[in-house]
Write a structure and sequence with these properties.
Elements (H helix, E strand, L loop, with lengths): L2 E6 L5 H15 L3 E6 L5 H4 L4 E5 L13 H8 L7 E8 L5 H12 L9 E4 L4 H14 L1
Parallel strand pairs: 1-2, 1-3, 3-4, 4-5
Helix pairs in contact: 1-5
């Protein structure tokens, strides 16, 4: 059985809802899943998981949340090589630039993603939830 972590930061609950759907999908596919808020995840935990999904909404000028999520992500990024990695998050404005930038940063670091970053506008609707479940299944 594979072990997967779903790590997220959410200001409004939208990315949290996406995180739960990703976790549900990974569990449906047979993975043992742990759900973490960004403040509770660290580089010490990376080695315990075969796959990790990271979720963060678009903030400011289409960037990652910078007080909790970005520092945590920067601290674990160098340890992600060889693991199944997925990215997801919600946005309320813009066109998804933060996700494209984040994905490019990951790929430039030599980290392979299981799929393109998954985004949804505002609260996830039924289609977005289904997409999150499918992303979770890809992690397992």
């Amino acid at each position: 059985m594979s072990k997967a972590a779903v790590v997220y930061w959410s200001g409004t609950g939208n990315t949290q809802a996406m995180a739960q759907a990703v976790a549900d999908g990974a569990e449906q596919a047979g993975a043992q899943v742990s759900l973490f808020e960004a403040a509770d995840f660290s580089n010490d935990l990376v080695g315990e998981y075969d796959a990790i999904a990271f979720g963060c909404p678009s903030m400011g000028c289409e960037e990652l949340e910078d007080s909790e999520f970005q520092p945590m992500f920067d601290s674990v990024k160098d340890s992600l090589s060889g693991k199944k990695i997925a990215l997801f998050g919600s946005y309320g404005w813009g066109d998804g630039e933060w996700m494209r930038t984040w994905q490019s940063d990951i790929e430039a670091a030599g980290i392979q993603l299981v799929a393109d970053g998954l985004i949804c506008n505002e609260a996830p609707d039924d289609e977005a939830v289904n997409n999150c479940v499918e992303l979770g299944k890809m992690l397992a």
